[in-house]
Design goal:
Helix content of chain A: 55-70%
Structural class of chain B: alpha/beta
Number of strands of chain A: 2
Strand order of the largest sheet of chain B: 3-2-1-4-5-6
Number of helices of chain A: 22
Shape of chain A: globular
Distance between the termini of chain A: 8 Å
Number of strands of chain B: 22
Number of helices of chain B: 14
CATH topology of the largest domain in chain B: Rossmann fold
Shape of chain B: globular
Largest interface: A-B, 20 and 18 residues
Distance between the termini of chain B: 26 Å
Largest sheet of chain B: 6 strands, parallel
Oligomer: heterodimer
Strand order of the largest sheet of chain A: 1-2
CATH class of the largest domain in chain B: Alpha Beta
Radius of gyration of chain A: 22 Å
Helix content of chain B: 25-40%
Radius of gyration of chain B: 23 Å
Strand content of chain A: under 5%
Order of helices and strands of chain A: HHHHHHHHHHHHHHHHHHEEHHHH
Structural class of chain A: mainly alpha
Strand content of chain B: 15-25%
Chain lengths: 477, 453
């Protein structure tokens, strides 16, 4: 283990977070809100600590895969612990554990909230909450890789640990350039959405915060009633489209830019993703038609909700708990599948689902004819045996952790739907669940212990399990 | 620059290592998924899985934007075909590794007719290098500059050598041979020496000199070593063939090749009429004595196994053979071989990597082939580079003593109108001179880089 390098990178991240805290501080100044020190104090602590950790550059810059995983896990925990301070210091969320839950929910782009009255929060804190979605969406360390002048060849392991999906491919030779391209696309999408929302008449602050929450597939809104509070078809349409785009592998956008259209169209994962969405919307429209009375209205609410859930954003325009069980079940399954690999969305990822489906088909074929030899293919190319194994392992681990968390949460004696969906929604970084944690409810009913467990679930889900698990194996190689 | 490397064997990986240090954009192509997976974790490169002679694979690697395409797969034919297709898909320069001796005689024809920039044959190059070492048995290594007019010679100062405890100024005065010591390696560090530098026994020095001066130099510094007349070679692979051919046909030496495989022996004997081919196991010490290891002037181990080569070389040393040369394929073995006292270790891969690096460096310059020759010395700690003075820069026509050179750089020689100059302070650089510079500053691309600004 290269502890020096891990400490050094953590220090860099802390300095970076201090810089990011200047953004809500600016909001604080612009809106004339008094509590500057709720941001200045944590920023000063971060700068000081970051400076101490990075004062000496490590001589040995070699990093193993294990080091990369641990760096990512440590960095995410640190930014969450410090990122929670503004909420606590300003008094908006006085309990530190609650503040940490809210922050982790922000950085992991979950969007589960403990707050009953969001509108009572100060503007600067609301901004910081939404901004954390944006930072966590593409990855904080990916940002570091994009801006740090000298990146190590081995820092590929960091990219792999932080990016979503079983396989991380580079767009261009240099990782730094790859990270920059990804962030450019991300920034472009965010700004475009902000402009479109502004044109529709949303205030600049709201449109920026909602754009952060959309492109990061987070789900924190600035209104108590989430997006439903605006009651505008235009806003819903814009946000739905950008949620849909943010759930697609960002590499594909790059293929579009460099005019590699065949690579775009051939992508099986995207096709499956769009297919699942189309089928789900149709099914829910049929199922909820009697509630809304008109096709347009049913389409408006069902499409927004399906996209919001599958991309793991978690915005709500309808209280889907009132929907029939069939529709709720569809949403529940969408929570598991999640968005595409390489997007900002959470969940198991459509790539894994498609691959597992193909593995299952292959096994059936193999049982029918034990002598048959079948190659697994994705996008017309054979899939490495290692990737298949990794996906199967991931899924097995995923359900073990799911079961383990559920048992721990059930101590709170909530009803089954609430407990199960609370874990599902946190683990998959969605936001709202069903029951008491549905779109109209929140997580404040859970005990502190459960909040800590759910916080860990969010981190496990966002970093795709292994970094956090490996953290418990430090020094044991 | 955008560089594509097809084929990731030992050679390919070494190239990735060197070229990624120089900050190029590298795309790697290989058919083996496992290899590709390892590489994408270890190096900052983009990877493509597939056969490099397929258009779609090349397209995925963005071959049309690539400056240099290097084919290093194990098959000569795949390399040539990949280069041809890459060339048609607008790759600017193509380099193919072609190692089958069958193609050796038509290399120039093939390169020119097929439109390739370079064809490298590691075994052939290694054989040439061993040939040069055998020509000057006192030298550890020799590299030529200025189209063969200047040599950069590596030489170890053994205990008892006249040069030990002598400053470089004294050396020039006493031995009266026109050589210039460019770099000294002592206990792992590399120095670019000034005139007051005192040599010690155990130092490895690199000096620049012309051919006639080298022989004179060695007559004084290493009078015991005699000219090599007979060479015993163990192993009958491609290098052995090229080497035996070279030393028997061009250098008038006697060569005896030991090879275990009968068929291989037959084919060698057909193509090497002047060499003795022995069908025997060269790793058998008794047999080596029988075949006259004690009377041979030089012993070259060229079996396929690095370990065996080292053990055989050590055995030859213990029998008191004047000059022992070892081949090592793996880079990790190179250092170990040196640490057990084997000075002359030749690595075909390192030689090829240097050649390609030299080519890449030369292409990097905006005004074309500024770098003529590049030689990485002392594990890449220092570099000797031959530049051409192409433009009227401010360093042209100024006496060297008035030029402000970087601390770790030195002008080793100047070649002007087919004559070489070992420069002193009063010499000047002129337009169209080719200048050999030695420096420990890595990644020099232009003559300008050696001056202080």
């Amino acid at each position: 283990m290269n502890y020096r390098m891990i400490t050094y990178l953590t220090g860099q991240i802390m300095k970076l977070e201090a810089v990011f805290m200047l953004a809500p501080l600016l909001v604080c100044v612009l809106y004339g809100e008094g509590d500057y020190f709720s941001f200045i104090t944590p920023a000063a602590i971060l700068i000081a600590a970051g400076f101490i950790l990075t004062v000496k550059k490590p001589l040995n810059k070699e990093m193993s895969a294990h080091d990369g995983f641990v760096t990512v896990a440590v960095a995410w925990i640190i930014i969450s612990l410090f990122g929670a301070l503004p909420f606590m210091l300003s008094g908006d969320i006085p309990n530190y554990i609650d503040a940490v839950f809210e922050t982790i929910s922000g950085f992991t782009t979950t969007g589960s909230t403990l707050l009953t009255d969001v509108e009572a929060m100060s503007r600067s804190n609301l901004f910081w909450r939404s901004f954390s979605h944006w930072l966590g969406g593409m990855g904080v360390l990916v940002f570091v890789l994009a801006v740090l002048p000298q990146s190590n060849a081995k820092s590929m392991y960091i990219l792999r640990a932080e990016a979503s999906g079983p396989k991380v491919g580079k767009l261009v030779s240099k990782m730094k350039s790859s990270a920059r391209i990804l962030y450019s696309i991300y920034i472009f999408l965010t700004l475009l959405e902000t402009v479109l929302l502004c044109i529709g008449g949303m205030p600049l602050f709201d449109s920026l915060a909602n754009s952060f929450a959309t492109t990061g597939t987070g789900g924190f809104s600035v209104l108590n009633n989430s997006i439903a509070g605006y009651d505008s078809v235009y806003f819903e349409a814009v946000i739905a489209i950008f949620m849909l785009l943010s759930g697609i592998n960002f590499n594909l956008f790059y293929f579009l830019i460099i005019r590699k259209f065949t690579d775009f169209y051939r992508n099986e994962e995207m096709k499956a993703y769009l297919g699942i969405i189309a089928v789900s919307i149709t099914a829910i429209i049929i199922n909820t038609y009697h509630l809304y009375g008109s096709l347009a209205k049913a389409f408006r609410f069902s499409s927004f909700q399906v996209i919001s859930i599958i991309t793991s954003t978690g915005f709500a325009t309808a209280d889907y708990i009132q929907w029939p069980e069939f529709s709720q079940c569809i949403l529940l399954l969408l929570m598991f599948s999640g968005a595409c690999a390489g997007s900002t969305g959470g969940g198991i990822k459509v790539y894994r689902v498609v691959l597992l489906f193909k593995v299952a088909l292959k096994e059936i074929a193999h049982t029918l004819n034990p002598r048959s030899v079948v190659t697994l293919k994705m996008d017309g190319k054979p899939v490495e045996a290692g990737v298949v194994k990794g996906v199967v392992n991931y899924t097995v681990l995923y359900f073990f952790i799911f079961a383990f968390s559920l048992i721990l949460i059930s101590v709170d004696n909530m009803d089954l739907t609430t407990s199960v969906t609370a874990v599902i929604t946190c683990f998959n970084n969605i936001g709202p669940g069903l029951g008491f944690v549905g779109p109209a409810g929140n997580f404040s009913g859970f005990s502190s212990f459960s909040k800590i467990i759910l916080s860990f679930d969010m981190l496990l889900g966002r970093l795709e399990i292994f970094p956090i698990l490996l953290l418990f194996r430090v020094g044991r190689r | 620059m955008n560089i594509i490397i097809a084929g990731c064997g030992k050679m390919g990986i070494e190239l990735i290592k060197i070229l990624s240090l120089e900050k190029h954009n590298i795309v790697v192509i290989d058919t083996n998924l496992q290899v590709i997976d390892d590489i994408s974790g270890d190096f900052d490169v983009m990877t493509v899985t597939g056969n490099s002679s397929r258009c779609d694979v090349l397209k995925e690697a963005n071959v049309s934007k690539c400056n240099i395409f290097i084919a290093m797969t194990e098959s000569d034919e795949v390399n040539i075909l990949s280069c041809l297709i890459a060339r048609k898909m607008n790759a600017k320069h193509c380099i193919a590794r072609v190692r089958n001796p069958v193609y050796a005689e038509q290399m120039v024809f093939m390169r020119e007719e097929l439109g390739l920039s370079m064809m490298v044959n590691p075994e052939y190059q290694a054989a040439r290098e061993i040939g040069r070492i055998l020509h000057y048995p006192s030298a550890i290594n020799i590299e030529t500059f200025g189209r063969g007019r200047i040599d950069m010679v590596e030489f170890k100062i053994n205990p008892g050598c006249v040069l030990a405890d002598m400053s470089l100024k004294e050396m020039t005065a006493k031995i009266k041979v026109r050589v210039l010591v460019c770099a000294v390696q002592r206990e792992g560090s590399v120095f670019i020496p000034s005139g007051d530098f005192i040599l010690r026994s155990g130092d490895k020095i690199h000096f620049a000199a012309a051919h006639d001066q080298i022989s004179k130099f060695f007559k004084i510094t290493d009078p015991d070593k005699e000219r090599v007349k007979s060479v015993l070679i163990v192993g009958g692979g491609a290098i052995s063939y090229y080497l035996a051919h070279h030393i028997t046909e061009d250098m008038g030496m006697q060569a005896k090749v030991l090879e275990t495989d009968m068929q291989r022996c037959v084919s060698l004997s057909e193509r090497l009429p002047r060499a003795d081919i022995i069908n025997a196991d060269g790793s058998d010490h008794e047999l080596l004595i029988e075949e006259g290891i004690d009377s041979a002037d030089a012993f070259v181990t060229l079996t396929g196994m690095d370990e065996e080569n080292i053990v055989l070389a050590l055995f030859a040393k213990s029998r008191g053979v004047n000059k022992v040369v070892t081949k090592a394929s793996r880079f990790s073995v190179l250092k170990i071989a040196e640490s057990v006292g084997l000075d002359c270790v030749v690595s075909p891969k390192a030689i090829t990597a240097n050649m390609i690096l030299q080519y890449v460096r030369a292409r990097q310059n905006s005004d074309g082939s500024n770098v003529l020759t590049l030689y990485r010395m002392l594990d890449g700690e220092a570099e000797a580079i031959e530049f051409i003075v192409r433009q009227e820069a401010d360093y042209v026509n100024v006496p060297i003593k008035d030029l402000r050179l970087n601390k770790n750089s030195l002008i080793a020689s100047i070649i002007r109108d087919r004559k070489y100059i070992i420069p002193n302070g009063d010499d000047k650089l002129m337009l169209n001179d080719s200048v050999v510079v030695v420096s420990t500053n890595k990644y020099m691309r232009d003559l300008n880089d050696i001056f202080l600004h």
